[in-house]
Amino acid sequence: MMSVRAINDCFIIRTATTGAAPPVSLFRHRIQRLRSSHLREFSKLGFGFPLLRQNTGGGDAPSCSACIHSLVESVSQEHESVSRRKRSRLSVRASVKVKLTSYGEVVEDKLVNQELEAGLLLEFKKDPERVLLAVTHRPDGKKNWMVFDQNGVSSSIKPQQITYIVPGVYNFDHTGLTDFLHRAQDNLDTQLLEFAWMELLEKNKPVTPEELAEIIYGRSDPLESYCAHFLLSKDEIYFSVLESKGSRSIYSPRRTEQVEELLRRQRVKEAEEREFEEFIQLLKSAKNAPSHTKPPKSSWLANDKVRENIDSLKAYAIDAWASIDQRKLAGVILKSMGLQKTAVSALNLLIDIGYFPVHVNLDLLKLNLPTDHSDAIVEAAEILLSESSDLDAARRIDLTHLKVYAIDVDEADELDDALSATRLQDGRIKIWIHVADPARYVTPGSKVDREARRRGTSVFLPTATYPMFPEKLAMEGMSLRQGETCNAVSVSVVLRSDGSIAEYSVENSIIRPTYMLTYESAAELLHMNLQEEVELRLLSEAAFLRSQWRHEQGAVDTTTLETRIKVVNPEDPEPLINLYVENQADPAMRLVFEMMILCGEVIATFGSQHNIPLPYRGQPQSNIDVSAFAHLPEGPVRSASIVKVMRAAEMNFRCPVRHGVLGIPGYVQFTSPIRRYMDLTAHYQIKAFLRGGDNFPFSAGELEGIAASVNMQNRVVRKLCNSGLRYWVIEFLRRQQKGKKYTALILRFVKDRIASLLLVEVGFQATAWVSEGKQVGDEVEVRVEEAHPRDDLILLKEVL
């Protein structure tokens, strides 16, 4: 073989007569293409690399004869240089360590590590991502050395951190590091490494950095040796480490098929990097765009790769990544955006690009609760609505002659219950509690029923409602509707004069709701005491009798203030917040409350009488001595103190359990079957009995299993609703005029003078320091010092 190099102009002319050479097509492809990924690796040291060094001077191009003369001269000079180096090596051969091969041949040991001394030029690993050049200064203990690195920093390094000792350099002045690096920059040409691979592959010959320097630079001086080492250490395509010892390594050229596969992977990687960079630019553009011109959320979901990136940020924002790779991806995105790798950074970025609204509900995302119904469930619900038959049609009693009041909050989407009343000839009051009949459409174990069980309950948030049943089925089929004939399960009760139950019945019915009233409008009608609304007054009278009777049985009053919030256009940065404070002692609310308790007592009694497995609920009183709280003002203050000593509710699925707090012998939740799944199970059981048999859908054991999973889901939903309500109350307070004063009731003292307060105007509990002399039940004035809903922070200060 003959090989001719003209290194200064980066030309290689080779004629091969033996050995297998790489394909010509591969060579042609390589020489035309710069490896951008290699350049990026080298640029970590601040290097920039020219591909080919060309003649940039002026003047005419040299003639052909001049080129040939120059080439011959260059070859002659190189031949002489090689001869001198060979003679030099022969003169020092005696001092080089040797080793025996497996054949007994004596060869030079190329992995001998140079002893450390002051003034050596070396490369060391600063951290997993960086290597630096440095000069040894002095020993630091038995093994470590103090060095000055290329950044002018003095530090102690361990021998195992050293990756290369530049040969032939002694007493190097550390102030020359910058110049050395600049000169190295001109020699780091990745195509030279590729040409060397082609030559070494033909010979199947391993190589050291110094030998590689001879091949590509024509000499193995310190600068060239370091450049060769750097090219080899950063290379991931052409060479692999054959053997390594300390800071010395021997490299082997990879096979042609390996290189082609690595190049293919590199092209794929480069395409992915370009795609990623385009995504980062898209993020930056969206982040800087005005709010009204930010890309719509749908645009981030159109491309699979973009959606994958966005999903990783979402998972990072709620600490719920699906895999380590997803977490790493989000971290790389945040780093590329110049942001810290924190959940808050990911959240703020998603808000800044317009993907999340400012007031996104993170708890809803974290809990991963179902919101929209799947197409399959919606389709199944529509079939039920259009094709299902009423199995109880022949057994329904017609109660359409009754005046029926449905009383609920003004934004209620579905209505579960309504009330009627009349006075019998003997003066007693007869009441009907009409409950919506979803079991008219849904049967246990059906597709729609299984989905309702999985959800457990409808979710009512300030920003949205996520119903247990598909909306169309719930609204058009199950819900009670004003002026329309509706299916119901009606519980009728005749009260004695003391408020106890004299007679009752439970029947399938047909009703026609007359009024749909809010609590406010119902309270107004009661206050007006209109003669034509005598039925409403009878309901109020019955509620009063029931309340008296329950308290005689030991019921405990826990009425308080309750906050309700409805947010209009929650996607807006500053949505409208409608806040309502409801006093549970309000006449209309007390009326509905008493009727619901009455219905629950009747169903428990009916179930006990006929041995029906039901979700019976009870609550021991814990021997509560209500008189011990008589010194506290009635209402929220006294209720808060009583609730703290109450025991948790308990359930039984075979027979009623006394509900001491309500003061009744048994209780079953029955009045919200469209919103609560356990209410629906009670409907399934009761309706099965009304159809004439004891073939109940669920045994007591099955009900217990269902209740366990449903109640667990209900606790999650309750936590979500409480956190959502708290967020929006704090946001409401944040927007109020600075320095605004609020009346607060002291509910209890948490520690020293730090008290739990109830802000009367907003029905919200928070803590604050109160002055000496204030007692539980006293009123104080406070103002909001700080309010940060995202951090769940509210800071109150007493106004003295």
Automatic annotation (TrEMBL):
One of its GO terms (molecular function) is 3'-5'-RNA exonuclease activity. It holds the Pfam family WHD_RNase_II. GO terms for biological process: mRNA catabolic process. Coiled coil: none annotated. One of its GO terms (cellular component) is P-body. Residues 396-692 form the RNB domain. This is RNB domain-containing protein.
